[in-house]
Design goal:
alpha+beta, two-stranded antiparallel sheet
Amino acid sequence: MASAVEAKLAELGLTLPDVVPPLASYQPAVQSGVYVYTSGQLPMVDGKLSVTGKVGAEVTPDEAKELAKTCALNALAAVKSVAGDLDRIKRVVKVVGFVASAGDFTGQPAVINGASELLGAVLGDKGVHARSAVGVAVLPLDAPVEVEVQVELTGA
């Protein structure tokens, strides 16, 4: 039986993806006490990046916002891989988003809204979080966006 969170994803026309395998020497997510910390999640779909490049150059801000949403979905999959059930999410504590930015691009917060808005749509008040949106020169695999999430879980 699907969790309430996965049912909400389905209602929004979304499916929780498989966990993206690590690209290097790390785990997709780790649990410490009641917290789960995800590694940075790229906008991978079926093992590939559909778009590469800098936001504000090869990638539009609207495309990047959609990619941030994909990153958040991948982060939820990583959380589930250690928590077992997304209904255990008590709240999203923090989201950190990185945007590979053209030199004059300053719209990083609007891009990372893709992740924040998805978490809010799926988790309601539990999805409200603190956040950083950071512009960087380049990301792994020339990804336009990377998102990491920290969540607090309810008891077992």
